[in-house]
Each structure stands twice: as C-alpha cells, then as structure tokens.
Amino acid sequence: MLRLLVLLLVLLNAAYYAWSHDMLRAYGFGPVRQAEPQRLNQQIRPEALIIVSTGAPRPAEAQARALPPEATASCLQAGLFDDAQATALRQAAQAVLPAGTWSLNEVLVPPRWIVYMGKYADAPALARKRAELAALNVRADAVSSTALAPGLSLGTFESEERAATELAALVKRGVRTAQVVQEAAESRASMLRITPVDDAVRTRLDALQPVLAGRSLRPCP
C-alpha cells in the first residue's frame, strides 16, 4: 500500500511539472497565459520614455538650472559709470536697444575709506610687504586710486570710524605702519538698467559690451 501511495505522488508531481511547463498543451492542457499584447499596440513611442528617480531634476529643469541668472532675468543692470563712460553708453544704447527698455540713472556713491599701507618705492617693495602680511594671515589688495599707488588696502569702509576700528584690530595682529585714509570722496555716478529684457532685447546685448567699461550685466536686485 505504501509503495502504491509513493508511486501515485511521483506520477502526480510528474504530471504537474509537464502541465506547468506546457508539455501537455498539444493535448489541450496547460496553464492560462497572462499576456495582453493589445496594450503594447496602445503605447505611444515607448522608446522615448525616461525613468527619473525621485528628487532628480527633469531634463527641462536641468537645462534651465544650467543657464546663468543673467540669461533668464527680465531686468538687468550694470555700473557704476563716470560721466565719460555714461555718455558713450548712452549713445550706444540709443542706437542698439529699443526705446523705453533702458535708462541711465544717477546714483550717489558714498565716500570710501581704507586701511592703507604705502606708498612703496617699487614693485619688489610692494611684493615684500604683501608677503609679510600673508605671513600674518592678513589680506591685502592693490589700491584703485592712482594717487595712492603703489600701495595696499587692508579693507574698504564707508566711514572713517569703521576703518579706524579695523585698523585697531589689525595692530593687535601685528600690522605696523598702516593708516586710515580716504580713498574716494562722495561722488555721483550712473547705473544702467534694462527692462523688460525679452528675446529681442537679449539678442542686442552683445553690442553693448564694448562700452560697458569692463562691467557685467547682472540681474536687478
């Protein structure tokens, strides 16, 4: 009896294996196939699908992020320009940009005070002083005023009091022979503003580069 039961189980397993592997489909036996080929025909360009993980930027978003801010801003500005530079810029803007899309606005430039070291006899003397300051971990920049060059600025400030406070701090760090001087008095200058910046305006901006005096067009604040 036990042998018969074992033989029956072996035969049942063999039959199930043959059925599940489509060996009996020729005789009309086999599992139901789970397939919907009609859905493949309903797909529209399935090869164009792109799988994007959660949090990853979409291709269009990534392209927009790659553009610099000035390439998409609706308002751009540049400055500051002195009287001669403003005159040249005004003439160029009138010839290049559509009327009503640009303006040159006069702004008040506050006085500028610096912690100053100099004048130095020559470039080697200036370089030696830079090295001494670097050893003290003090940043030094070349002065922009021709009257003070060759010299070094250890900081720029809008008031004499703030410059004096910085000088006192630098003395404690070992800086000697520095002093507070006024690098520039209060003055007036011009700021270029372009708005709205549409595609027609954007294609003409390159023509302004020669008269921007090295300034860059940046998004308006």
Helix-strand layout with pairing:
Elements: H1 2-20, H2 37-42, H3 59-66, E1 76-81, H4 83-96, E2 102-109, E3 112-118, H5 123-135, E4 141-142, E5 151-157, H6 160-172, E6 179-184, E7 187-194, H7 199-202, E8 218-219
Antiparallel strand pairs: 1-7, 1-8, 2-7, 3-5, 3-6, 4-5
| Alpha carbon gap, first and last residue | 95 Å
CATH topology of the domain at 69-109 and 187-219: Alpha-Beta Plaits
Q: Characterize the largest beta sheet: strand count, sense, and whether it forms a barrel.
A: 4 strands, antiparallel
CATH C-level of the domain at 69-109 and 187-219: Alpha Beta
Strand order, largest beta sheet? 2-7-1-8
Return the string of H and E elements.
HHHEHEEHEEHEEHE
Specify Rg, calculated over alpha carbons: 38 Å
Task: Give the structure's gist in a few sentences.
The protein is an alpha+beta fold. It is built from seven helices and eight strands, in the order H-H-H-E-H-E-E-H-E-E-H-E-E-H-E.
What does this 3D model show about the protein?
The chain is of the alpha+beta class and 221 residues long. Among the domains are: 69-109 and 187-219, 2-Layer Sandwich (Alpha-Beta Plaits); 112-184, 2-Layer Sandwich (Alpha-Beta Plaits), CATH 3.30.70. The chain has 7 helices and 8 strands, in the order H-H-H-E-H-E-E-H-E-E-H-E-E-H-E. It has helices spanning 2-20, 37-42, 59-66, 83-96, 123-135, 160-172, 199-202; strands at residues 76-81, 102-109, 112-118, 141-142, 151-157, 179-184, 187-194, 218-219. The strands form 2 sheets. The protein has a 4-stranded antiparallel sheet with strand order 2-7-1-8, with helices on one face. A 4-stranded antiparallel sheet has the order 4-5-3-6, with helices on one face. The radius of gyration is 38 Å and the shape is elongated. The mean pLDDT is 82.
